[in-house]
Amino acid sequence: MPIPYVAKQFIPPHTSSPEGSNVIPFNAPGITPRFVPFAANDVLRYDNRPLVNKTRERDHIPALMRRFPNESCPWLSGDWKSCIHPEGALYLYNTSRKTFTEAILDETTFDLVAGCVDGLYDMAANSASLETADIELVVQLWPTDSEMTCQYYFVDHSARTIFWLHDNREAIMNIFSGLRGVDDPSHIRFALESEYWTHCERYPNHKMDRVKLLKELREVVMHASAEIITSDMSLSPFDADELSRILELINHLRENAEENDFPHSTCIIGRFMHYFYRAKFFNFCGLPCARLDADKSVYGEDTGFHPLISPLSLVFEAMLFWAPQAHLKDIRRVWVDECINTPRWKDFNRKLMTEWTGITIYSTVMLAVDVSFLAVPNVNISQSQSTGIIATYLSIIFITGSLIASVLLARQNQRYGFESADKAAEFLSNLTGTFFGVKALATVHSLPYAMLMWGMIYFAIGLLYNVFKFTTTAMLASIVSGCVVVIMFISWFIWAAREVHIFQRLSKSVRSFTSER
Q1: Average of pLDDT values for 241-262?
Q2: Residues paired with 100 in a beta bridge
Q3: Cα 228 to Cα 92, 217, 257, distances in angstroms
Q4: What gap in Å lies between CA 517 and CA 514, rounded to an integer?
Q5: 215 Cβ contact list (under 8 Å, min separation 6)
């Protein structure tokens, strides 16, 4: 899903003793469902789908068959009717009560759902004024170990939000997706409106003013396109190519905007609006602390000096040629405050694939060079204790390790690199949820490069050892002067590129440590 996303887990409904106002009596013995608020995104449409019964099938088509009723729910009665989503899912809709539920139920469960609907509207009549044509209700049953619960939410189309008759005690996970610091009602509004658009996408029965909505969506998309063109810090949940295609799609939708006979346009509008309003919520839109650049944290970073971890980290990074620092910077551009920025996530993975593919080629060439070097007549393999031979063997080991690490990381990137945002967030959360956090992932990504560098260094040591041992004085002077020139050029490049900030990092860490004390 192309939006900034926080990895979340489903929290089962609270299972404490039902309160008096939450319980409705029902004819079925021993069943007293308790009302529990839930989110539109948690509707059980894509999970636990029924399987096809292969034993039930027709062996012929009757003559003159021109009517095709849906017999999946023969027990439907009253104002209930079955509806087919453009995606293909079957759901049920009560025209008088304006209530939706999924069609994954039997007759007994359906009767229980109908009783829950009546109970909810009775409670709503006593606690709030819902006398408006823009109110809808969604219910579903969720069994727990000890009781049956009725999950529900109301929809207010005029306010473009969802609401409940009870306090939502699980809002941190099922509405806020674990985002920290959510307090302002104007901020909560964006989360609820994104849930509202999810509802519109999944139940597109409401007659909307599509002309007005398409104008609003078109303005949002054009602004996001201009922001991406002119800035590298865009907060858009889509990249430039995707925004261009969305804008083209909106232009096609405007042709049928005034017709409400087909639900497809409502689904499309609802899906795109959900993405944009979800991005507003994660970026604290409308607040003084709003995120304005995609790579800026709204919480502040921990830059403290740890007397044990910081020196070890500095030494370890030096052993890896400071490659983890570059990868850490890239990871923090896509994994800001544990949120995914999907356009950057895709660019990040394409960059990683290019790097690892190049390292694989370099490693293959270096492996062939090492093996060929051992075949040189002047290199006596029988002298296994020779410094040159040992260095060459170490070079082969490091090069092989770099090659294996590159192949494994490239395969992992192909499997998870272009997943939807929720799967990408879960993947990153699992990798970075250790004591070392994102530094561990940055270190893993830098291993192919670091091992390749060590392999080339050991090869150079083995080569120079054999050259210095078996050459004349004149040739030795020429080789030494060449080595000095090469080392000077490499050192000059490293210093000019400022890849290594040893003194700067040391002074920064010491200042941080002394200020804390």
Answers
A1: 89
A2: 93, 138
A3: 41, 17, 28
A4: 5
A5: none
Please list the residues that pair with 36 across neighbouring strands: 151
Whether the Cβ atoms of residue 254 and residue 214 lie closer than 8 Å to each other = yes
Query: Quick one: pLDDT at residue 5?
Result: 47
Backbone dihedral region of 471: left (phi > 0), alpha (psi from -120 to 50 degrees) or beta? beta
Average pLDDT taken over every residue of the chain: 82
Determine phi and psi for 90, rounding to 5 degrees: -100, 130
Cβ neighbours around 152 below 10 Å, total: 23
DSSP 344-362: HHHHHHHHHHHHHHHHHHH
Structure tokens at 218: 């078109």
Q: How far apart are CA 153 and CA 220, in angstroms?
A: 28
In DSSP notation, 382-401 reads: T-TT-HHHHHHHHHHHHHHH
Which one-letter DSSP state was computed for residue 11?
A: P
CB atoms within 10 A of CB 279: 25
How many Å apart are CA 78 and CA 95, to the nearest integer? 9
Which among 114, 74, 123 has a CA at the least distance from the CA of 94?
Answer: 114
Residue 454 has pLDDT above 70, yes or no: yes
Among the ranges given (134-148, 158-172, 189-203), the one the predictor scored with the smallest mean pLDDT: 134-148
Contact 137, 157 (CB under 8 A): no
The mean pLDDT of 152-178, rounded to a whole number, is: 91
Strands 90-94 and 339-340: unpaired
**% of the chain exceeding 90 in pLDDT:** 40
Alpha-carbon distance 192 to 206, whole Å? 18
The tens digit of pLDDT for each residue in 139-164 reads 998 887 778 889 999 999 999 999 99
CA nearest 154: which of 168, 138, 140, 166? 138
User: What residues are paired with 93 via a beta bridge?
Assistant: 81, 100
Query: pLDDT, tens digit, for every residue of 343-383?
Result: 888 888 889 999 999 999 999 999 999 888 888 766 665 65
Packing angle, helices 240-253 and 210-230, rounded to 10: 160
Within 10 angstroms of residue 121's Cβ, the number of other Cβ atoms is 17
Angle at 230 between CA 226 and CA 232, to 5 degrees: 115
Q: Which residue has the tokens 């929290």?
A: 11
pTM of model > 0.90: no
**Single-letter code of the amino acid located at 491:** S
Question: What is the pairing mode between strands 34-37 and 80-84?
Answer: unpaired
Q: Residue 340's closest CA among 431, 219, 247, 444?
A: 431
